[in-house]
Task: structure prediction
Amino acid sequence: MTTPVMLLGYFLVPVFGAMVCAGPAVTRPGVVFGVRVPADHASSPVIRRERDLYVRYTAIVTACATAAVFLSWGHGSWWLGRIILVLELAAELACYLRARRRIAEAKRAGRWFAGQRPAVVADTHWRTEPERVPVRWLIPALAVIAATTSLRLAYGPSAARGPADGFAVVIGQVFVTTLWTGLTLLFYRSRPDLDPADPAASLQWYRRLLRAYARAVLVMVALIDVSLLLHALQVWHVARPPVPLVLLPATAGLLTLIGTALWAGRDRAAAGTARLGRARAAGVTAQDDDRWWKIGLIYVHHDDPAIVVPARFGVGWTLNFGNPSAWLVVAGIVAGPAGLALLLR
Amino acid sequence: MLLSIEPDGPVPIYQQIRDRIVEAIATGELPAGASLPSTRQLAVDLGVNFHTVNKGYDLLRQEGLLRIGRKSGAVVRRDAGSGPPDPGWEDDWAGRLRTLLAEAIAQGLSPDQIGEHGQAAVAGFSLRIEEGA
Result:
């Protein structure tokens, strides 16, 4: 029988593949495959060539993995979709690391940062006139949780074996909502992704990204909660919605978030070309911070007090693993589901 | 205000933070009463150690340009329109200016050239204040 989790495993293969493939197109200007490059080398032949090859290779990997998933449909066990997904991501990581190595070698050999004036810019208005979290957008998620709780009380199992029995879905909804709301608050407190060549325009873009991203996250959370509610109706024998219908809201939410990230990335990439021209004219470039980025994706900087920083590849945020508070966030994300599983044993 | 620093430059980062804020006060970009981010927030935004920002803010506090309160945070204490400086400040400043002028003389600049540089710098600040007004 096809379960929601199984179906999700299959669905994620083309979605994640497409996201990874689109990565370079939505990444901030001045960073290519996690390598910081100065404005006057941003369109050098080696970067153009590696970008083209990366897109070609990852598109082939995604197509093969998607074909494998569809061919195995209904024949494999629940774990087959996940194995294909892991293999797909591993192959795409290899494509990324290959492109990254080539560009880092060219940067080193050509001494791209020699004679540059690296700068870091902060806009004090960002803190003195902070962006407000759109709290009202949390109301749909809270309403779905309230509706699920009411339905549990009305139709859930009457012979409860423990305090959490029968409330697993509600606890899951609360966890998902709390986790994403907490992360959104962290994003709002993180430093903005400012371009030293054009800080005012890049701050405007960052504010637009945050507003759109926060709304998309809260819509996604509400839709995941709806999917959990539909699943609960099945478990409580209230209704028998088909599996694709159970997954539909969560899928729509995930696609909304991915679409928002892609839109924001394209918006920035379009503005970035003009910005690189201004940077070349001003002789200003961002600081060469490669030493703090492991494989260009994992940030470890002990002297940086930031917990969350803008991601280097694609659009979004990542943790500063050099800050002990970031490990507390990881512990919270891991401990939540683990605690939930223990509670429901 | 946009606060730009060069982390790999020869001037210490705390000094650069202090200098940029003084310049913003001189141009009118940061008038008396304007709020600045907390030391922790500015350290996060610049990606530098919290103590580095603290040192820069502390210099400004000692110079009477910043007031740092527990509740109000860092606030600009005075600007060009706040009247004459605190007693003794002008003598300290004249001492530092003397060293700066000595550098120019030692490097072979003429008194006229030094005067032109001084006038251009002061005119730049005044122009920005008038534009702001």
